[in-house]
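Escalated from tier 1: phosphoenolpyruvate holo job.
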Amino acid sequence: MNNVTSDTTIKGTAVVSGVRYAKAVWISPRPELPQAGEVIDESQREAELERFTTAAEAVADRLEKRSASAEGAAAEVLKATAGMVRDRGWLKAVKKGIQGGHPADYAVVAATTKFVTMFEAAGGVMAERTTDLRDIRDRVIAELRGEQEPGLPTVDEQVVLFADDLSPADTAALDTDLFVGLVTELGGPTSHTAIIARQLNVPCIVAVGEKLHNVKVGDMVLVDGALGTVTLDADPETAVAAEQESKMLAERIAQWTGPAETKDGHRVQLLANVQDGNAARIAATQSQAEGIGLFRTEMCFLTATEEPSVEEQAAVYKKVLEQFPHSKVVVRSLDAGSDKPVAFASMADEMNPALGVRGLRVARANEALLTRQLDAIALAAKELGRGEDAPTWVMAPMVATAREAKWFAGLCEERGLIAGAMIEVPAASLMADKLMPYLHFVSIGTNDLTQYTMAADRMSPQLAYLTDPWQPAVLRLIAHTCKEGERTNTAVGVCGEAAADPLLACVLAGLGVNSLSSASTAIAGVGAQLSAVDFETCKRAAEAALDAEGATEARAAVREVIMKANA
Ligand code: PEP
Ligand code: MG
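Tier 2 regenerated the structure:
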């Protein structure tokens, strides 16, 4: 197994940083699913229907009660899950199965399978609901059998929660005073578990693989959410010290006010990644973001069946721009295709959509789609009176050649927009010297740059050890891009998930990156970490990472450089 570093230290994908030393608990197992075959006698079917209705009601009631005692997003998720148990379509399908002679538990499985297949075929947001559907299936089956409801165990001390995967209902109900860490066998950095863990700010590791089952209930475990490691035989004294240090860092984060600079005053601009006006408002009001470094415009149109007019688009863009009336906003032109299908812009079926007609490539056959979007961005900026104090930058995704950069920059200049490109195709990094003369800035998309450099699907949990921006191969491409940026006087930012990792942020600053753009919730952690090191240390950390054999070694080497510098 590539994820395993030793028999007692198991490695997964780091999602939320923080060190915790506590007992392990496992989530209660899912019930075994019944097979087809048994037929209920006609005289018993009415009673079986009754049994099912009572069980479904009990599950829905319990979820609703938990929703009432939860808050915010967690309450919403629990309420929505309870609503799914009461969904008329699903109930009808189960009842039909029972009336047809299936035992209730099998009828639940068959009805759920039918809906899962339908949702998966619909793809996108619908496909993401299938975890919730399977979750309610398991809860109702356990209730029918009188078994313990699958999910969170009851605990009275601080524990780290282990699971194959976590359902939204489990994660939403989590009491973070007791469940102080999360570790899963499956999932990925963008899975539901990861998203909720980030929101709750609970140290979290996903995609550990089968070795996770070496951890037994009651084992003392040292979980390091930044390194992505679970250590079984940690020396208790060292473990407690590491936990203390991590808590002190959390306090520093809470006190950090920005703007970001290293101990010795080297500035790094911290910006926010947003997908709509609401996220921009949160970034503006609840974080220290100095502006927006990535506005993912395609996310505004995932459900649109027709292309919105220039005026309609401008209204959408204004909602984001107006949140930062005096700062830089980087708008990305449509990154349609691959995992983000946009009905009016994406290609029909492709054999290999991640390597297909996505991002800027869509506009080659449909330039007007791009120019209408650029017109809309220019219109939005003009209507808001944005001038030099509030620059509106525009960048293209998936640029691979200098010719593409030149073409895009020309279209931007015609509209008075400041042009840039994402560096997320390795070719763009390798050819940076040829691309940059056409551009005002570049922004490195480490999510795709890692996917394409490592030839590993960013959505694959099995390949999470490869889709890790700490891979020195990826860092070498970033280093090369920065060198060319400095030589050609082109601003270089990073807007992939790497920009949210405080340790990696030191490396990126050391490599010469000028700005880091991430989810606004990650900004304070990055800023606090940068404020704790000097620029020379960042440079040494960058050298150590570039020289490492792999991602794990790079993390460890950087940690050591920083710890030594601060000793
Ligand atoms: C990236 O690829 O790193 C990026 C920021 O773009 P997206 O995640 O939207 O593909
Ligand atoms: Mg990308």
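Confidence is low (pLDDT under 50) at residues 1-6.
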